[in-house]
């Protein structure tokens, strides 16, 4: 009898999360024809967005890697960082970007379509959500050090939004670069190079999910049940 009571109590402790509607932030059309990268550098690629009402919390970032001619075996197994920055003066330029949240991942399921264009996205969930007040500019991007010639995130060449950037440092400074954007040796908007948009997306929600009231009620009931069994 005691065992049954304990199992019921544990069942009521399983979190029931309230799902908030999400908004996607993106610049691309879903297909990457090319990419931008370098050799022997730490590179940060990032997109500028404006926070929308009801989507102020950013916790998920999606990236499509490579582009036309990219070899999946080159990317799979490579480590990268994922980041969210604020834009203190709301000018859309990341020189003064302030790092809010970071995470790290390993590319494990990158693949190309048969014609060489990249259409798949790798989704990454940050440990903590970054909050950006509605109407304010912010940046979402990735960082990577590589000692071989790779393209980084895929590049959609169907349009030029002017809101994709690439910052580079010599050598492996991947741990510090995202927090010191102004120190980059090379800073380029995509429009200054070949145009297009970085295939880096973010998902925003109105609030961070919390346990629902029904869970709290269930927990109270479970405690009361255990007390009655002990009396």
From TrEMBL:
Keyword field contains Heme: no
Keyword Signal: yes
Domain Ice-binding protein C-terminal as annotated: residue spans: 207-230
Stored Pfam families: PEP-CTERM
Annotated signal peptide: 1-20
Keywords: Signal
Name of the protein: PEP-CTERM protein-sorting domain-containing protein
Species the sequence originates in: Rubritalea squalenifaciens DSM 18772
């Amino acid at each position: 009898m005691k065992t049954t009571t304990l199992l019921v109590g544990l069942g009521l402790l399983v979190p029931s999360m309230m799902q908030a509607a999400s908004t996607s932030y993106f610049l691309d059309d879903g297909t990457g024809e090319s990419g931008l990268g370098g050799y022997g550098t730490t590179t940060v690629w990032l997109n500028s967005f404006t926070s929308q009402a009801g989507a102020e919390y950013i916790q998920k970032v999606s990236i499509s890697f490579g582009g036309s001619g990219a070899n999946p075996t080159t990317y799979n197994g490579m480590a990268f960082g994922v980041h969210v920055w604020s834009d203190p003066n709301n000018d859309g330029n990341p020189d003064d970007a302030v790092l809010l949240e970071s995470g790290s991942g390993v590319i494990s399921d990158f693949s190309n379509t048969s014609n060489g264009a990249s259409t798949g996205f790798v989704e990454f969930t940050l440990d903590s959500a970054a909050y950006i007040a509605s109407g304010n500019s912010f940046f979402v991007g990735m960082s990577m050090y590589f000692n071989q010639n790779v393209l980084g995130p895929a590049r959609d060449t169907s349009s030029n939004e002017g809101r994709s950037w690439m910052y580079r440092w010599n050598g492996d400074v991947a741990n510090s670069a995202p927090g010191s954007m102004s120190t980059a040796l090379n800073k380029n908007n995509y429009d200054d190079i070949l145009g297009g948009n970085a295939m880096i997306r973010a998902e925003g929600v109105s609030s961070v999910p919390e346990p629902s009231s029904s869970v709290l009620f269930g927990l109270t009931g479970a405690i009361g049940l255990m007390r009655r069994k002990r009396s």
